[in-house]
Design brief:
Number of helices: 15
Shape: globular
Radius of gyration: 22 Å
Oligomer: single chain
CATH class of the largest domain: Alpha Beta
Distance between the termini: 26 Å
Number of domains: 3
Strand content: 15-25%
CATH topology of the largest domain: FAD/NAD(P)-binding domain
Largest sheet: 7 strands, mixed
Number of strands: 21
């Protein structure tokens, strides 16, 4: 197996979701050479993931316009690639799934648009077949998974729940109930703030109208999944009453967690688990920018304007970038209100029982972790966080349960076949390729 040669680009964007597309389009439209990496086969990321065509699903004009403008900008998309490490300054290596090799890409400026993932919290039965992440189930349905006629409970926290429920219903699911752990009192200030964001208010109202017959229970959360060998029902509570909802599937996620592993590996500074950026979206590293969810969960509109600012700033268009600051700041304030409204309730920390699996990769139970003083000790004694997902699932869970934060990000940040690592060019070979001939 032969590794591909190093390629160079003026601006490298990691992530082809809304933020990455906006950044790439702005930079390429200014005449810069722009290359975008993404692990999906096409542009759009998780939020604009393409899927099986359905007559019941309306075309999203924002998605269509963003992808059209991206393609017209002459930016290059390298799909099916995951950035795995950086062995030298201004260099990234990416694993190409189709060919099984590692590419090396050098850059002058880097824009990180690595998105976010769902937060999962362990409770009895959460690993049974039939339990999905809320966004994960939606992605599977877009990929062709059939849920027509299936009874689905949607539970967890965040505005994603309502959107997922509406989309699953459009694909034929019967939504049994929506259980939101946040209280009505905590969500009320957020609802009032929506009045100053009419587009978001209308979108939420459309989702709720579509689901008008479905109970939407605030201050409600799952206690356990019941079933032998697979999910049969979900036990829910509102803190006072407990009841069981028979169902075929559970779509459950407790808001989102920023994907900051690549930023940390490069040496970018974090604050409150988010990448620190200045007014131009520049990180604490020279010529490295970050946009979208890694800088804080604030939604689609924030991602788009942050991406455009970074693309403009990276191509020395400071005046045009500055004109967008007010809009960006407004969207980021909305994100902070979102965090306050959907803050996790303390009861969620006591859902796991001694035999509840916390780390699915290494089959580590809650009781095995209770005696550990830190994340490092838990790794050494139980291998929690050392499996294939490298702590992406259990990391957020143990932070919620014990307050532990991952103190070590090591390359490769995604699993890579040993054959690909052995065939990749060495650091000396990369240096030679970078030097003028």
């Amino acid at each position: 197996m032969t590794a591909t040669a190093t390629r160079h680009t003026e601006i490298l964007v990691v992530g082809a979701g809304p933020a990455g597309l906006a950044a790439a389009t702005a930079a390429a439209s200014a005449g810069a050479q722009v290359t975008v990496l993404d692990d999906n086969p096409g542009p759009g990321g998780q939020i604009w993931r393409s899927g099986i065509a359905s007559a019941s699903i309306a075309i999203d004009p924002a998605r269509e316009n963003a992808i059209r403008e991206f393609r017209e900008s002459n930016a290059s998309l390298l799909p099916g690639r995951r950035a795995i490490d950086s062995q030298q300054p201004r260099t990234l290596r990416a694993f190409v799934e189709e060919t099984g090799v590692i590419e090396t890409i050098t850059w002058d400026r880097l824009i990180l648009a690595t998105g976010a993932r769902e937060r999962f919290l362990p409770f009895p039965g959460w690993t049974l077949p039939g339990v999905f992440g809320a966004g994960g189930l939606q992605a599977l349905v877009k990929g062709g998974y059939t849920i027509a006629g299936k009874r689905v409970v949607v539970a967890g926290s965040g505005p994603l729940l309502l959107a997922v429920a509406a989309h699953l219903q459009e694909d034929g699911a019967e939504i049994v109930t929506i259980a939101e752990q946040a209280t009505l009192g905590s969500m009320l200030p957020f609802a009032i703030k929506l009045l100053s964001h009419p587009a978001k208010l209308m979108q939420g109202a459309r989702y709720r109208a579509t689901l008008s017959h479905v109970p939407y229970r605030t201050g409600c959360w799952p206690l356990a999944v019941e079933g032998t060998g697979k999910l049969a029902a979900v036990r829910l509570t509102d803190g006072t009453n407990t009841w069981t909802e028979p169902c075929d599937l559970l779509a459950c996620g407790f808001h989102l967690v920023p994907n900051t592993e690549l930023a940390v590996l490069l040496g970018c500074e974090l604050h409150d688990d988010c990448v620190v950026v200045d007014a131009t979206q520049r990180t604490t590293l020279e010529d490295v920018f970050s946009v979208g969810e890694p800088t804080g969960i604030a939604g689609l509109d924030a991602a788009l304007v942050q991406g455009k600012i970074a693309g403009l700033a990276a191509t020395n268009q400071a005046t045009q970038a500055k004109a967008l600051y007010k809009k960006r700041n407004r969207e980021e304030a909305f994100g902070k209100a979102l965090d306050r409204a959907f803050a996790l309730r303390p009861e969620l920390r006591s859902l796991a029982q001694p035999d509840t699996i916390v780390c699915r990769c290494e089959d580590v139970r809650f009781a095995q972790l209770q005696s550990q003083p830190s994340w490092t000790d838990a790794k050494l004694q139980t291998r929690c966080g050392m499996g294939a997902c490298q702590g992406r699932i259990c990391g957020a869970a143990v932070q919620t349960l014990f307050g532990w934060r991952n103190t070590s990000i090591r390359p490769p940040i995604f699993p890579v076949p040993l054959s690909a690592l052995l065939s990749a060019p060495t650091s000396n070979e990369i240096t030679q390729l970078q030097e003028p001939s």
